[in-house]
């Protein structure tokens, strides 16, 4: 019998300070915490497991690429949310004073793959992107 459950992703990423990371992911993004040690913290990232590992020499390093007129960090992670969830998160981040790399906006407007997107960094300089599609059939549109 085949399990119909979608897989969860797991991502480990480097950070410079676990306390700052805890405050950002828990209090700003709203992620619950799981196991932790003095070297790492597990976060429930909208049902997925992301783990912040203390590794100051590796955190926050990335080049950028041009996408739709914006300098997008080549190394980033995030989620595709439902449209309303994306709007609510954008508002929460703005209210918390998060500095955006790329302010919330509609990318590829009127084209295949139109999407809402925003980029910001965590306290260690790791770039995150959250996006939403009005039509999920357009996620892989070309």
TrEMBL record:
Residues 7-133 form the VOC domain. This is VOC family protein.
């Amino acid at each position: 019998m085949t399990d119909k459950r979608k897989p969860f992703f797991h991502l480990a990423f480097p950070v410079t300070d676990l306390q700052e990371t805890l405050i950002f992911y828990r209090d700003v993004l709203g992620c619950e915490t799981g196991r932790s040690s003095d070297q790492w913290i597990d976060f429930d990232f909208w049902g997925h497991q992301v783990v912040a590992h203390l590794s100051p020499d590796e955190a926050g390093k990335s080049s950028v690429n041009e996408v739709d007129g914006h300098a997008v960090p080549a190394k980033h992670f995030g989620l595709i949310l439902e449209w309303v969830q994306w709007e609510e998160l954008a508002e929460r981040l703005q209210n918390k004073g998060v500095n955006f790399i790329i302010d919330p906006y509609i990318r590829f407007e009127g084209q295949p793959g139109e999407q809402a997107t925003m980029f910001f960094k965590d306290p260690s300089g790791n770039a995150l992107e959250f996006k939403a599609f009005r039509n999920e059939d357009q996620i892989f549109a070309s």
